[in-house]
Amino acid sequence: MIHSCSGSSLPSSSGSSQSSSPTSIGMKQTERKFSRILLDDFYSDQSILITGGTGFVGKVLIEKLLYEFPEINKIYLLMRAKNGQPLHSRLSEMFENNAIFERLRLSDRDFHKKIYPINGDINLPGLGINPIDLAELKRNVSIVFHSAATIRFDEPLKYALTVNTLGTKRIIELSKKFINFKSFVHISTAYCTVDRSNIEEKVIFEPIDPDKIFEMSDWIDDDTIDHIAPMLYRGRPCSYHYTKSLAEHLLAQEVINGFYSRRVITNKNYEDDCKDEDEDGDVKWRPFPAAIVRPSIITPSWRDPIPGWIDNYNGTTGFMVVLGKGVLRSMHVHKDYLCDLIPVDVVINTCILSAWYASTVYYSQQTFPKTLTIQSTESSTRNSDVFVVNCVSGPSNPITWDEIRRIATPLMFRYPSEEIFRVPFVRYHRSKYLNQLNVLLEHTVPAAIIDFVFKFFGLTPILNQVYEKVHRSTSALEFFTTNEWTFVSDNMQILSNELNRSYREHRCNSKCSKHHQRIQSARESIDERFSIDLRRLIWKDYFKHYVLGIRKYLLKEDPGTISKAHNQMMMLVIDFNDSILSFRI
Fold it and tell me: How far is CA 341 from CA 301, 354, 412, in A?
């Protein structure tokens, strides 16, 4: 462990007063000084709250935090009870059955002892957390990663509002009660403002305040709110992107306003010295350091903890699966448009760095109100930017839909699935109507014929059901295959630069040679440990691991069966060529 000599990352309660034109009565301004500390020290001895910890992103986040920062104190996971299964049992099953935790198991057998499940639900008022757990969270948690969300594109607006927006508000309100609060990271989406062609790293406030939307959803029935939803979306394709934008709106308000605590904290026991006002009759102001990380289409891991790890069919992964099995033959795609993919480990590294940067660097550049008189609390607003990172690949390492097809298809021939329907091949059509005709000929008609044959022989017809799912998925993806955006992604480079700078410029007065050796070792390895430089990514190599990862981790197919599967596929190729030859003759 590397101990920084710069002290705590928390801002001091004192600061140099500055004269400024007051924007509200009784407001004083002060420049908050945050000490620059090393990333390892920032996470040392911290207790972290994670929502969505059992999801794809959450699992990678847990593994990375515990592997890279063994001196983390605790990780609390907000979890729901599921099918009557105890929370600890769910966690044990997750850790035992996932290859992603293999590296962590080898480095620390007892890593699971640092993970504490908290029974709660972001859909419930107060998150459904019992008083005992709530008191422990208030006492211990200092860093929050909010990943929980519903990512279904066809989700009704009212439910998506409850999970994605109101759930975020509830997590924010809980975080404001943490006495050791340091940083809040909200995982959003790069597509929350897809009504704009140029997506910058800033929050776009919605014209209707989120609280107004909550009120409306309370008294309007589901059918009515879904009817007016397109007017609220303003060019966005579904409830997911709109509700994630509303969540950003809420968080940005908290960052702009900070929060005002009536509790005076002591270094001994936070329950001992509590009073409503300080000596001047003012309410204590506390900053709310936060970051919004906006990933694009999240794909399997690039490097950590293992290349190609994936556990879901979301985004382009579903497309890759049905393409590899020969099920998908036609898509509505503008083939020369960019497809923005981001490996999950790059997303996680960005989140980890953003929590550190927001708390120790970014907000040191801001001017915050030191105190606010009780009478003027309701007028406490100021203009400021929340730290936003567009976690995307396009600006540094672009790839088009056509390049994906040209790279992936040969790899699917080389590493085929054990169960394929036809030879992997897909046509891209710029014309929607030509695609519909091709879908009829390549999907619907063959499925109907084969299902008829299945019925005739007393077998269960399945192909029509398969293609219904495929068409739903490709329909949801169509908005992204026929549109293109320009992303600004300067903050990923800033994070990388600041990380290297902090270790390069670190100075220590320690006379311990071992300490200096650890510092030097960290300087040499920190960029590799938390790499977010996508210029190093070679797409051909990445897609090889993508295809193999789907086969091994998602389809649960033994790598030893690749040769047999390849021989079976070659028989399909021969049959296909014979059919074409016979047709021509």
Answer: 11, 20, 19
Question: Which amino acid is located at 496 in the chain?
Answer: S
DSSP count for the chain of H helices, then E strands: 20, 19
pLDDT surpassing 70 at residue 488: yes
pLDDT band at 98 (very low <50, low <70, confident <90, very high): confident
Cα(497)–Cα(504) distance, integer angstroms: 10
pLDDT tens digits for range 386-408: 899 999 999 999 999 999 999 99
Strand, helix or coil for residue 80: coil
- How far apart are the C-alpha atoms of 212 and 517, rounded to whole Å? 56
Please give the Cα distance from 563 to 569 (Å, whole number): 10
Whether the link from the prior residue into 461 is cis, omega within 30° of 0, is no
Domains parsed from the chain with CATH numbers: 17-303+341-391 (3.40.50.720)
What is the full DSSP assignment across 24-37?
STT--EEEPP----
Q: What's CA 133's distance to the chain center, in Å?
A: 26
- pTM metric for this prediction: 0.84
Tokens of 457: 């022989």
Ordered DSSP codes for 152-205: -TT--HHHHIIIIIIHHHHHHHHHTT-TT--EEEEE--TTTTTTSSEE-SS---
Phi (first) and psi of residue 449, to 5 degrees? -65, -45
pLDDT 10s digits, 496-512: 988 888 777 665 555 55
Q: Which residues pair with 75 in a beta bridge?
A: 48, 115
